[in-house]
Amino acid sequence: MNWNSWIRPLHRWLSIAFTVTVIANFVAMGWGEPPAWVVYSPLPPLFLLLFSGLYMFALPYAAKWRSARGISGEA
Question: Which keywords does the record carry (predicted)?
Answer without folding.
Answer: Membrane, Transmembrane, Transmembrane helix
